[in-house]
Design goal:
CATH topology of the largest domain: 2-enoyl-CoA Hydratase, Chain A, domain 1
Number of domains: 4
Largest sheet: 6 strands, antiparallel
Number of strands: 21
Helix content: 25-40%
Oligomer: single chain
Mean pLDDT: 85
CATH class of the largest domain: Alpha Beta
Distance between the termini: 57 Å
């Protein structure tokens, strides 16, 4: 924010604080509510220079930016997207799509959505929406979303170009609620080991987890591998409910403390069939907040083994205070602690940039005695922020991440996989062991992929090491499998060579 507004921002700090206090404690009577509006109005009407239209939001952000890294302001225009993600759904036609060669391509229809029910297929091209041409006009993702999403019950017509059919196929679609799934996949890795990957903790996560775990239990699951890698967290209640299924009754899950709040303990409340199965939890430096609560509860209660790398260290509790204009403030009010007494939150005294990059250069080998805690059965665990795993998986230093990231960011794996799937879908379907066939010919497919990306970057072949090649081959084949079949087949191929999963499978 411009320096000339800083005195105003600081003057508003106390007033904003009072308003926040009013929202957190409804019994307190506040008579200063009009001061903020008065000051803003005075500035807007009398200040010597013109005021930026985002002035109010800039003032709010300047006030909260030095509190902690996770207290935040959400503007009205951003709030809807945030809410959709956390509530776990939106209204639309129900497709995953990419824009390839300036055309909207259906990656896959979402299970149970209106598009799937009408017969829209992976590989279909959307050429028209409500009789308006959308191919070859430079449409971007936001433009597609704007045209295809809408209120539940409203209708939209799309014209599809499908390979092998000359004429466009019209579909009249009635928009409906489309789930944003937080369980990416649930499958059996062998006769006794189940695998569930959770990508966030939304309002619907627990129900998704419950359905997934029940399915796997009925299939003979004796051990669960719960994958929380790169899961940034979300609703505490979702994490608590999952812990409730995995822990015995009356075991401590997490407790919170804050300056204005006393210690609040949360215990498991019920008994469940999952209490008897073995549990491994996969975490990495991208696992945060609710993910860390689950990992900490499992570890401190000696319920299972934590595998991976130390988690992010986000142990601050935010309360969301909705503003009258549709915006919101997420204010830190407490800290999370694991059952052994470890604070999940890592230090944030340095800059925000240092805070969010710390996990990439941390030392996980030396812990002072002051950070030593005891689990339920007396095992040593360590604090200092985040959850330190029982079995550590070192960061892969053999991959050239600069090259890998270049390929991923440019979408070359995605685009090639879609193109290959489109051209070979029918022929692959005719092969009895088609999924194994893909793996058998992965070298041939990889060479085609190299030719594809060299059209975009002539020198990239020279940047790819033998280690990069192994990674890229697996990713290309897995993405093709997902396009032709489903998400489960993608994971079956990826997890087969996953070091974390291999480590979990070797445990008793």
């Amino acid at each position: 924010m411009n320096k000339k507004f800083q005195p105003i921002a600081f003057a508003l700090l106390l007033i904003i604080g009072i308003i926040i206090g009013k929202n957190l404690n409804k019994s307190e009577k506040i008579s200063t509510n009009d001061k903020i509006e008065s000051i803003i109005n005075l500035i807007n009407s009398h200040y010597v220079d013109s005021i930026n239209e985002n002035f109010e939001e800039e003032v709010i952000n300047s006030i909260i930016k030095d509190l902690d890294p996770h207290t935040s302001y959400i503007s009205k225009k951003d709030y809807q997207n945030v809410e959709e993600s956390m509530l776990g759904g939106f209204s639309g036609i129900g497709i995953e799509f990419n824009i390839i060669e300036d055309t909207i391509v259906v990656v896959s229809p979402i299970n149970g959505g209106p598009s799937e029910k009408l017969g829209i297929k992976s590989g279909d091209r959307i050429v028209k929406v409500d009789s308006v041409n959308v191919a070859g006009i430079g449409i971007e993702n936001n433009g597609v979303i704007k045209k295809l999403r809408g209120d539940k019950g409203t209708k939209v017509q799309v014209h599809i170009k499908r390979r092998g059919i000359n004429d466009l196929i019209p579909f009249n679609i009635t928009r409906n609620t489309i789930p944003i799934n937080s369980v990416d996949v649930s499958l059996m890795l062998n006769d006794s080991v189940g695998f569930i990957k959770v990508n966030r903790f939304s309002a619907k996560t627990f129900k998704e987890f419950e359905r997934a775990s029940d399915k796997l239990y009925d299939q003979g699951m004796k051990k669960l591998i719960l994958d929380l890698r790169d899961n940034p967290g979300g609703y505490l209640s979702a994490a608590v409910n999952i812990c409730d299924k995995l822990l015995e009754k009356d075991e401590l899950i997490v407790f919170t403390k804050g300056r204005m709040r006393g210690k609040q303990e949360i215990y498991s409340r019920t008994t469940d069939k999952l209490e008897k199965i073995k549990v491994n939890v996969l975490i990495n430096e991208g696992s945060a907040s609710a993910s860390e609560i689950i990992a900490g509860a499992i570890q401190d209660n000696d319920r299972g083994t934590i595998i991976g790398r130390r988690s992010f260290g986000k142990g601050l509790v935010q309360e969301e205070i909705k503003m009258g204009d549709g915006s919101a403030i997420r204010l830190t009010t407490q800290r999370y602690y694991t059952p052994s007494g470890r604070s999940i939150q890592k230090d944030y005294e340095e800059s925000n940039e240092e805070y969010f990059m710390e996990q990439f250069h941390r030392n996980d080998t030396i812990f002072p005695d002051s950070l030593k805690f005891k689990t339920k059965n007396g095992r040593n665990v360590f604090g200092g922020g985040g959850i330190s795993p029982d079995i550590k998986i070192s960061r892969d230093t053999t991959l050239n991440f600069r090259t890998i990231n270049k390929i991923i960011i440019n979408g070359w794996i995605r685009d090639f996989a879609m193109q290959y799937s489109d051209n070979n879908r029918n022929s692959i379907f005719q092969i009895n062991d088609s999924k194994e066939y893909l793996i058998r010919i992965e070298e041939i497919i990889y060479n085609q992929f190299l030719n594809f990306i060299q059209k975009n970057d002539k020198n990239i072949k020279n940047e790819i090491s033998d280690f990069d090649k192994k990674y890229l081959k697996r990713q290309v084949i897995a993405n093709i499998a997902r396009n032709i079949w489903n998400n489960e087949d993608y994971y079956k191929i990826i997890l087969d060579k996953d070091e974390y999963v291999i480590s979990a499978l070797t445990l008793d």
